[in-house]
Amino acid sequence: MASLGYEKIEGQDHGHWLLIIARPREESYFFAPTLKALQKQGDTVSVLCLSALSDESLKKSRQQELRDACRVLGIDADRVRCIDDPSLREDAEWATEVVAGHIHEAVNYFRPTGALTFDKNSGKYTHMHAACYNGLVHYMNFKKEKERVLRVKILETIPKWALYDVYYIWTMMATAWCKKSVQHYHTCWARQARRAASKHVSQKKWYSCLASGSRVYMFANNVRDDTAQFATGSTG
Questions:
Q1: Sign of the alpha-carbon torsion through 142, 105, 113, 115
Q2: In angstroms, rounded to a whole number, what is the distance separating the alpha carbons of residues 177 and 141?
Q3: DSSP per-residue codes, the chain
Q4: Are strands 223-225 and 151-155 parallel, antiparallel or unpaired?
Q5: Quick one: pLDDT at residue 176?
Q6: Do the beta carbons of residue 154 and residue 44 sit within 8 Å?
Q7: How far is it, in rounded angstroms, from Cα 162 to Cα 30?
Q8: Distance of alpha carbon 183 from alpha carbon 3, whole angstroms
Q9: Within a 10 A sphere around the Cβ of 178, how many other Cβ atoms?
């Protein structure tokens, strides 16, 4: 059975995690339950967003929206970094070395004990998610020996059939038939995720609220520990 994001995630107590996302809103759409679980067990979260999307006129607004959304999720604005790099535009291919370089800078700045991002299969949906994963792999493989070894947690990609077939009916099913714990989650975590997503006003506020609160990732936030695979280079 899928592990839900609000359950305690095993690992170091009071760790510090660097969330690596491709664009604003993904902290709310994909990772909200896991972020709340980490915070519930006393961990700190910082955010590295690699792009503010392609529209130059909205770049500053989207950077501020990201900080506002993270604040709703319990992450202070000074723990949020949104990269302004012309080579990391939404409509461009992202070089792995460039992404790894920004991860390196964020690690040096925030000094986290672990990293959290998408898995390698997320490239089936967008190249930007795969770039987050590949960039982290590159950083972990080529960082200097004296640098700290990060723990790595990966959000497992949900199959497309689950994303689209269950997308609109899952909330109703949870309310009517699911276990009490899921009902409690939906009234708490998903509500907070919707509030966070509503801060992204430049990206269709009504859609953001609906998507963040009802999508399958709000119920099946499966996170696995890939520290061993990254340490041995078996991330292939």
A1: negative
A2: 46
A3: -PPPTTSPPPS-TT-EEEEEESSTTHHHHTSHHHHHHHHHTT-EEEEEE----S-GGGHHHHHHHHHHHHHHTT--GGGEEE---TTS-TTSPPPHHHHHHHHHHHHHHH--SEEEEE-GGGGGT-HHHHHHHHHHHHHHHHS-TTSPPPEEEEEPPPPHHHHHHSTTTHHHHHHHTS-HHHHHHHHHHHHHHHHHHTT-GGGTHHHHHHHHHHSGGGT---EEE-HHHHHHT---
A4: antiparallel
A5: 46
A6: no
A7: 14
A8: 15
A9: 15
pLDDT for residue 233: 63
Give the distance, in angstroms, between the CA of residue 15 and the centroid of all CA atoms in the same chain. 17
**Consecutive sets of 10 residues in the chain, 236 residues long: mean pLDDT of each?**
37 78 90 88 94 74 92 94 89 92 94 93 82 93 67 81 51 47 51 81 60 60 82 64
**Nearest alpha-carbon partner for 106 in 231, 227, 19:** 19
What separation in angstroms does the CA of 64 have from each of 23, 35, 85, 179, 206?
12, 19, 16, 37, 19
N residues, the chain = 236
Please indicate, yes or no, whether the overall pTM of this predicted structure exceeds 0.85: no
